[in-house]
Write a structure and sequence with these properties.
The chain is of the alpha/beta class and about 950 residues long. About 25% of the residues lie in helices and about 15% in strands. It contains 25 helices and 32 strands. The longest helix has 18 residues, at about 95-110.
Length: about 950
């Protein structure tokens, strides 16, 4: 018998730890390297996020490193060529940075807002936001405005944290789990592990989604809802809970503003605001003294329901009274919302009562002494083991903010927030409601902003508008168009800048943002806008800088290309100041460290930003001698402090590296992280794990760590006074700024409300719904993330061309057969796609995978790649502006009127069979030209660190797994 060949020479290999970047999970990985090549990637079993689990994307990080699309060197658009033609010539980093520094210095010294800096899924927004603040431009934001700002804002204004990276279900204890609008790739490994626990323990798993794929496919019950009606479903469930007296009254009195008194004087100034004393404290009705009193007092018995008269004679009602009056109305009864939601009334009522049964009849109690923020001592944590999770299927609608609020209200009425078995916050959350940062408004040459560009308004006074009420930001965030746009409106930047509305800009910097293709609404017209010139022959966006690691479609439109590294070639921080890797019971952050030596002339974007900050002499980046304060990005991370003892990394602080969460800079901090597998974890004490919005021990820790500004309790807000202030402004009843344009008055009056409301998606009210009978949405596949991985040779083998999925019965009724080509038309455009018929989709909905379609030649793909021939985008059907109706509203963003969230999923379409011979995806665009220095795309991409072993085995050897060789 021959000896087996030697597969691995471990003496030539080195294993290093880092953090994955193949999606947003930030899983821990260990990478085996041989001769500066990745041999294989494994999950880190010790890591708090994935505990060793790694998905197909994570394993395929090898092929991301081998991608033919990797940018090779800095590039400058060739003089005399037109933008978008893809004609470039190499430029040195020295010349590129000098050119950019000179341009930025001129902007900063004259009018800083002429720089717009917008970033995609960069995972380092604390740095990019700080950079913009120091530059002095308010025109900065990240991807959240076209991703999930509705989710974040609704949660932060309601309970101090939210779904997604702000919180998680208590997977270990929940007995009833409801998943709303979550595609397969969101928090991929943690959710998969969580669902496994739920299923193994016999807890019920309910999925609310128009599509049954991925997570939904293993749910115990699938609720096939119509897109955009989730909020109505949640409010109908609230109706059932109230009608059956299935609410946690003790929880509501102790931890929410349900007992607060609200001024009830319709049509008058001050109507709907909270009744407060002279110190601004909210008031409630004390049943012991039969009088109003400070609601924060401990030894009182607040009335949950009731109508009273305030000391000044004004009528008042409790929040809970207003809530009951609204949602007990017959319009929210299951039988009256069932048809609109597509969910039977019996199912709506049963689901609500099932949750109530689990919450109140299967209560969890954990014996543990803890003290609340009011000084009261408790001997146990009481948990209502019902949990929920939600994401873009909820948020990417123009009614998404109110829908998210409705789901949180449903959770709060059941008493399931941050309790055993419920929905848990993750440090550094929860925050006080809302967080105390206000968006910057004032700008001056060569002067940092007084606050960050993004913040949390509490009323019209906080808007970023001029004295005439006009927007000051290029994306019109924090204006009357989108007053609570906490993540900005990235999808509106190019459109507004080209129109010069509200003003023209000089330079646009895009990082990891494919804004000419899958990251934009109105794809083809945005490409035209990037090429558009004024009467003077100059481009309306004079200078476009693109930084990316790969040759996206947007790179071709750049005037200057600054190539980034891959995640295996650079340092990164996944910071407590940003979006850390914390789990509910552990505060955690992590780093990335270079695993491989760079083989191209590229630089990490973080390093470039720190370099530019020193060149431009930003105060926070410059010493007293006027020279750069930091020698590198690593030096910046070690020594920068947001406040004394608080920096980007929470682990191994202090001169000797023996302090956690807070401490002086440690010069060996990067080495400490590397020695500890690139992550830091601070485990919470048992007494700190629940009720953290009112947990004295936890709030003390949070204040010490710089997560919150005080140890005051965080009161959950069923009723949003912030919303009411904006509503009053729309009615002209507010003592402060009020809009003057009728459309703004109407938007504030109609869509802002102190209690969650439901309204039809905005696009639906401006089109012929009968003409466009189908909802059209995208889902992101579990094996890819955005457009990042459809260049990946291993993952492409799973799917390189998408289909339009239709309900089989509905398609057959229209004479459409499986694999047929169809035309899909919206009010804005049309595409041609090939259908795939399935049962697992709501009959009025069609869907496809997101971002599979590519422009020929982009992303290192060959000109005839399936992604360009068979792949397609729904983006071509979507407009960033609402349909025009001749009513003067010709420039209204197709976004949530509260937060500015891009309304991707409001799309309605009609579908007609293609004629014989009409095949292939359409539209098609000109092939992207190859960039200088980039290799020709290979017909087959094979990867190995050394010569492959051709192992021939008999069938007997295979079946016996080598145990009985003959």
């Amino acid at each position: 018998m021959k000896a087996l060949p030697k597969f691995e020479d471990h003496s030539r290999q080195d294993t290093r730890y880092t953090t994955c970047y193949m999606c947003a999970c930030r899983c821990g990985i260990k990478v085996t390297v041989e001769d500066n090549k990745v041999r294989y990637i494994q999950g880190n079993r010790n890591h708090p996020v994935n505990k060793g689990v790694l998905c197909a994307k994570g394993n395929a990080g090898i092929m991301k490193q081998q991608s033919p699309a990797r940018l090779q060197q800095p590039l400058m658009r060739k003089p005399g060529t037109e933008r978008g033609e893809g004609e470039f010539e190499p430029i040195s980093w020295h010349d590129a940075l000098n050119l950019l520094t000179d341009r930025l210095a001129k902007i900063r010294s004259t009018d800083p807002k002429k720089l717009a800096f917008f970033t995609g899924r960069d995972q380092m927004q604390a740095l990019t936001g700080l950079w913009a603040t120091q530059f002095g431009t308010i025109n900065w934001a990240a991807h959240g405005g076209f991703c999930s700002v509705n989710m974040a804002s609704a949660g932060l204004y309601t309970m101090g944290h939210a779904f997604w990276e702000f919180g998680d279900p208590d997977w270990e204890r929940t007995k009833y789990f409801m998943l709303w609008g979550v595609a397969e790739d969101h928090a991929s490994n943690p959710i998969k592990m969580g669902i496994e626990q739920v299923k193994r323990r016999g807890a019920k798993f309910v999925s609310v989604n128009p599509v049954r794929t991925g997570y939904q496919a293993v749910a115990d019950e699938w609720v096939a809802i119509r897109p955009g009606t989730d909020g109505l479903l949640a409010l109908a469930m609230i109706h059932v809970l109230l009608r059956n007296d299935c609410i946690d009254q003790t929880f509501l009195v102790r931890y929410t503003n349900a007992p607060w008194l609200v001024v009830d004087t319709p049509g008058q100034k001050g109507h709907g605001l909270i009744l407060r004393d002279k110190k601004g404290n909210p008031l409630c009705w004390d049943q012991e003294t039969d009088a109003v009193t400070d609601a924060s007092q401990v030894e009182i018995q607040p009335a949950l329901f009731g109508e009273y008269t305030a000391p000044d004679g004004r009528p008042v009602k409790t929040v809970m009274t207003l809530l009951a009056e609204r949602y007990l109305d017959a319009q929210y009864a299951p039988e009256n919302v069932a048809e609109r939601c597509g969910v039977p009334a019996e199912q709506i009522e049963r689901l609500a009562l099932e949750m109530a049964h689990v919450a109140f009849k299967e209560t969890i109690e954990i014996e543990c002494e803890w003290t609340d923020a009011y000084g009261r001592t408790h001997d146990r944590f009481v948990g209502r083991p019902v949990s929920m999770h939600a994401m873009r299927g909820i948020s990417a609608h123009s009614n998404g903010f109110q829908t998210c609020r409705a789901i949180h209200l449903l959770q709060i009425l059941l008493g399931t927030i941050d309790v055993p078995g419920g929905h848990l916050s993750k440090p550094p959350y929860p925050k006080h409601i809302p967080p105390g940062i206000k968006p910057a408004r004032e700008m001056a040459p060569n002067t940092p902003l007084k606050s960050p560009p993004l913040g949390f308004p509490t009323g019209p006074e906080d808007l970023v508008i001029d004295k005439q009420g006009n927007p000051l930001r290029i994306d019109k965030a924090y204006s009357w168009d989108a007053p609570m746009a906490n993540h900005g409106l990235m999808h509106m930047v190019i459109t507004n800048a080209v129109k010069g509305d509200p003003y023209p800009i000089d330079t646009l910097i895009l990082f990891m943002a494919n804004m000419s293709w899958n990251s934009t609404m109105n794809t083809s017209q945005v490409m035209d806008m990037l090429r558009e010139k004024g009467e003077d022959g100059e481009y309306k966006i004079p200078f476009l800088v693109v930084s990316d690691a790969f040759h996206s479609e947007t790179v071709n439109f750049a005037d200057l290309v600054l190539p980034d590294c891959t995640y295996l070639e650079r340092h990164d921080t996944i910071s407590m100041l940003d979006r850390p890797i914390s789990e509910p019971h552990a505060a955690a952050d992590s780093i990335r460290q270079p695993i491989l030596e760079k083989d191209r002339d590229v630089r990490p974007w973080q390093e470039v930003l720190v370099d530019l900050a020193g060149r431009l002499k930003f105060p926070a980046f410059t010493g007293e001698d006027g020279k750069p304060r930091y020698a590198s990005y690593q030096d910046f991370i070690i020594n920068f402090q947001k406040e004394p003892g608080i920096g980007f990394l929470a682990g191994w602080r202090g001169e000797n590296g023996d302090q956690g969460l807070r401490g002086e800079p440690n010069p060996k901090q990067w080495e400490a992280y590397a020695e500890n597998q690139c992550f830091f974890v601070h485990h919470l004490e048992d007494s700190q794990k629940y009720y953290r919005y009112c947990n004295q021990d936890y709030l003390t820790l949070a204040r010490h760590a710089g997560w919150v500004g005080s140890t005051d309790p965080i009161v959950l807000e069923l009723y949003s006074e912030t919303q009411q202030r904006f509503k009053l402004a729309g009615q002209g009843l507010y003592d402060g700024p009020c809009p003057t344009r009728e459309e703004h008055k109407d938007r504030l009056t109609r869509y802002f409300d102190p209690l969650p409301i439901w309204h039809p998606p905005l696009e639906h009210g401006r089109i012929d719904m009968d003409k466009y009978p189908f909802h059209a949405i995208t889902q992101r596949p579990m094996f890819m993330y955005h457009s990042w991985d459809s260049q990946n040779a291993w993952l492409r083998q799973i799917c390189a061309g998408n289909r339009l999925y239709m309900n089989r019965g509905r398609a057959h009724s229209m004479g459409i057969e499986d694999d047929a080509w169809v035309w899909v038309e919206s009010h804005h455009g049309r595409i041609r796609a090939q259908v795939k018929l399935i049962e697992a989709v709501e009959p009025d909905t069609v869907w496809t995978w997101n971002a599979i379609g590519k422009q020929a030649g982009a992303w290192g793909l060959s000109a005839d790649a399936d992604e360009s021939r068979k792949g397609f985008l729904l983006n071509h059907l979507i407009s960033e502006l609402l349909p025009q109706q001749g009513d003067g509203l010709d420039n209204v963003t197709n976004s949530d009127p509260v937060t500015g969230q891009a309304a991707w999923y409001d799309l309605r379409v009609k579908i007609t069979p293609a004629k014989p011979g009409e095949v292939g995806s359409w539209p098609q665009f000109d092939q992207v030209k190859p960039l200088p220095g980039m290799a020709v795309s290979p017909s087959a991409l094979r990867y190995q660190t050394h010569r492959a072993v051709n192992l021939k085995r008999s069938l007997w050897d295979v079946l016996t797994r080598g145990k009985h060789r003959r």
